[in-house]
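can u pls check wat happens w/ protoporphyrin IX containing FE
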Amino acid sequence: MHARILGFAAFAACLAVPAAAAVALSDAAGSYTVSPAGSSIHFTIGKAGGGGFDGAFARFKGTIRIDNGDVGRSKVDLTIYPESVGTGQSRIDAFLRSDAVFDAANSPEIQFRSTSVTRTGDTSALVTGRLTARGKTFAEKFTAELDGLKGGTIKFHVTGKVLRSRYGMDVGTPLYSNVVDFDMTLTGKRG
Amino acid sequence: MQTSITNTPTRYGWATILLHWLIGVLFIGQFALGFIMVRLTSQRTAFELIQLHKSLGFLLLGLITLRIAWRIGNATPPLPASVGALERRTAPLAHLALYAFQIALPLSGWALVSVSTLEIPTMPFDLFVMPNLPLAESDAAESFWAAAHWYLAYVGIALVALHVAAALRHHFVLRDSVLTRMITPSSGGE
Ligand code: HEM
Ligand code: HEM
């Protein structure tokens, strides 16, 4: 009984959302600057024996350009400053900044430059690009979900998995997973 | 010549001898590794060596448990007749203290990683996850166990130095069989 009502509600929601979103995406065309205030870049690394290890980057900058008419020609650029990593445990932060992991003194920036954006749904897209960290560059994929568009502000929820070993950051495997799970909220301001 | 696994009334068998030297090398190696790993500038190498130190520590704990069980289940040959009365009384005490340090060191290290707020898992030789001891984690508890482990390591290695000096004295000054019987196992006929 309960399940039936929920099922119906979900079905109704599915019908309603795409219509609204379709309008939203075409309205969204333009250039945005990522605003640190409404944005966050979180990551989680699984740990042997269960649980995980969470952190976030406090400083980053970026731009999002949504092409008018052709979403595929949209572009995303993101620069993260690994010096700003925070896990709530200062000894771990110092370890992450050191040459054991980010080597922030010699590689102060982690960069992502999109190479293609493929629409996967009314409000979602697959963003492929080149990620550069510690002088190494590889192709990576992120899923972006449109989370809201109001006035000149656009909000995306971005998730993706990155293998840290490729960037010379394999320290601690297999105690800590090689897979880094990213969970970001990127809020862009038009202009 | 047939050698004996077990001790005989006058000599050590090869199980006792093997365990003694295996543990001896590992114990001194653990001290050296511990000493070096906390003084490195490369955080990566330090991290990896600390994991190795933990793995070897657990191997040691296993071997020591085996050794103590073997010690209890086996007759221990008395010291040669030439050994003086004072040493006859102090040597067993020194050996008892050595056993106590062999147990206390790995246990204090295990307590240290269990209460550490870094929550770094322990996987001996990357084989399996070793559970933590059921102790509450806090910065204060971590400092306490780090200090305990440090003192036990330094007092323990001082005791080992004394032990080695005594063994060498037996061999080179007193010229008795105390060192050699810990090297060549009983051939069973004694
Ligand atoms: C590497 C240098 C070492 C030398 C030359 C050495 C030598 C000896 C000798 C000659 C004995 C026989 C004593 C006897 O017959 O009563 C002995 C016994 C013993 N050694 Fe060592 N040892 C060394 C390292 C160690 C280390 C590092 C430990 C442990 C931390 C250790 C723990 C013991 C114990 C507990 C006994 C008594 C065995 C028993 O009868 O229960 N030894 N050692
Ligand atoms: C289960 C076994 C063991 C574990 C888990 C363990 C763990 C540790 C850890 C985590 C540290 C780093 C402490 C710090 O932050 O300064 C350490 C240091 C050290 N450990 Fe162990 N340990 C074990 C057994 C041993 C044994 C058997 C020895 C033998 C003597 C030893 C000797 C040392 C020494 C010398 C240090 C360096 C202390 C200093 O100079 O600050 N450990 N151990």
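Chain B touches chain A at residues 42-44, 47-48, 51, 117-121, 123, 126, 129, 131 (CB under 8 Å).
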